[in-house]
Structures are given as C-alpha cells and as structure tokens.
C-alpha cells in the first residue's frame, strides 16, 4: 500500500512506520521533523495548515514516482499520529488547537482525495484517569471501549473531539475510519530503563491503569487496521496482554481497586486495559511481554 503517515518521527510513529515499511508498504512521513529511516520518504508540513495537508495529500512521495509518467498516484491509506503528545508541553489552548484542527485537516484532505482507509491515534487519556486532578478510578474493570470518556484536560479533550470528528466524517463518506486509544507506549530500551522502578513502586503505573503498549506491537496493530476492511467507524484500545508491574492482578485489585466492580474474572497477570475488541475484530496479536524481555 501507498501510505501517508503523519507524525512518523514521534515515539510511537517511528516504530509503526518501520513496521509498515518492513511489511512492504511505501510510507511518506509527514511531520515537522524528518524521520531518518531507510526506505521512508519525508515531507515537512504543518497539519494545522489545510493548504499544506491538501498539497501533501495530492503530491508525489518521491522523485522515483515521476518515472511512470502517469501522474500523481493516490494514497491507499492515511495513518494520522501527529499531535502535541501530552499536556504541559504547550499552552492548553494550543495543544487543543493543534490536535483538533490538525485531525480535521488530515481527515478532510484524505477523503477529498479519495482515501478510503484512515487510522488515527486517540488515547488512553480519553477515559479521564491519566491526567485527572487527584486520583480517579475506572468505573469498572477491565476497562473497555464502552467505558465513559469524560476527561478534564486539554489533551484528552482534544482526543475526544477527534473521535467525534472522525465519526462525523465517516458517516458522510462511508469510508473506514478507525481510532486507536493508545496506552502508554514503551520502546525496546524502556524495559530495562523504566521497569525496575515500576517493580519498586507499582503506584507509578496507576495513572496508566497499569497497562502499556509495546511500540512494535502498535505497528502490528496499525497493520491489522490496514488489512481489515468494512468496519466503518470503530474505536479500539491499544495495549499488550499483561499489566506492567510484578504483582498479580488480584494483588493489584486488593491494593488499588478494592471498590471497583469487575465485569468478569481476570487472568493472573491480565491487563486492566482490555484489548479484547482489537483481538476479536482486527486479529491483533501482541508479541512482546516485559516479563520475557527482562527474564521475569
């Protein structure tokens, strides 16, 4: 497939782009900074500028595409990860503006140029736990896509708005538009660097609902979204199968969630951030577990 990928130079994006490249796709990374990755083309553009997004959506990916002499090829899919990645990096209103206007522009341009498959990055923060003022617990566990989304911060608000925007575009266009509520992304080097502290103090993971998504498995999830057609508008949690601390699920419930209802029995180290929908509808099959990586 010929794929336009926004935000491919970011922490999550660079691994997903590498995965897609390795699957044989041609990827044009659209970002404010270039991704130095062999076999991947780059275009510097601002997602908040509609003109720039219309331009890149209708342009050659590289000089080699001139050789056919048949005009500009059309993108088969758009993967939209570009965003201000969390609160406290820019002013709140700028975070909200960039993320919401940028998503509108990307989806609008994609659909007007005939793209029928769009995947966009939403966030675990939509559930209102991650950046709450004080401690907020889920309404029930395991937390699935039917859980309410009532955040109170500008970043998570922008992601909720983006989901509504995407759903509205899908309703009018009939295209496939899938949103990924991505949990805390872990790169390969993060396990040795970060997880020892999680073992010492499990409470460090409370705001992430004790979950994580390996960046390489996130690439696999994007690939599954590209391959599964006909779902219309859907939202999927993106997380690995297990939680991220050296305690059992039962021990975590006793310590942190004694008053939170369980909707079913859970496995000994099963994630609280349910990925069941993605596994069932997309064939998502995460491969990386921190226990195996660290020899636990």
Automatic annotation (TrEMBL):
Gene3D superfamilies: NAD(P)-binding Rossmann-like Domain. Residues 3-191 form the NAD-dependent epimerase/dehydratase domain. This is Nucleoside-diphosphate-sugar epimerase.
């Amino acid at each position: 497939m010929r794929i336009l990928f926004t935000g491919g130079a970011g922490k999550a994006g660079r691994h997903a782009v590498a995965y897609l490249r390795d699957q044989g796709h041609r990827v044009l990374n659209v970002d404010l900074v270039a991704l130095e990755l062999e076999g991947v083309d780059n275009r510097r553009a601002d997602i908040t500028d509609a003109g720039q997004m219309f331009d890149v959506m209708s342009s050659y990916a590289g000089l080699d595409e001139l050789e056919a002499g048949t005009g500009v090829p059309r993108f088969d899919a758009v993967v939209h990860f570009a965003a201000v990645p969390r609160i406290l990096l820019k002013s709140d209103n700028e975070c909200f503006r960039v993320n919401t206007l940028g998503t509108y522009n990307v989806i609008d341009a994609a659909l007007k140029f005939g793209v029928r498959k769009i995947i966009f990055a939403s966030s675990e923060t939509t559930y209102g736990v991650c950046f709450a003022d004080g401690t907020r617990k889920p309404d029930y566990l395991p937390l699935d896509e039917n859980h309410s989304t009532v955040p109170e911060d500008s970043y998570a608000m922008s992601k909720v708005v983006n989901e509504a925007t995407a759903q509205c575009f899908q309703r009018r266009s009939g295209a496939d538009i899938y949103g990924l509520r991505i949990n805390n992304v872990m790169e390969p080097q993060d396990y040795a660097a970060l997880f020892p502290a999680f073992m010492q103090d499990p409470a460090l993971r409370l705001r992430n609902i004790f979950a994580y998504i390996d960046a390489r498995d996130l690439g696999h999830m994007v690939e599954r979204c590209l391959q599964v057609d006909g779902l219309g508008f859907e939202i999927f949690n993106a997380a690995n199968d297990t939680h991220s601390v050296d305690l059992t699920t039962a021990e975590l419930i006793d310590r942190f969630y004694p008053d939170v209802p369980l909707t079913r029995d859970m496995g000994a180290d099963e994630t609280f951030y349910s990925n069941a929908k993605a596994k069932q509808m997309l064939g998502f099959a995460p491969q990386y577990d921190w226990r195996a990586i660290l020899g636990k």
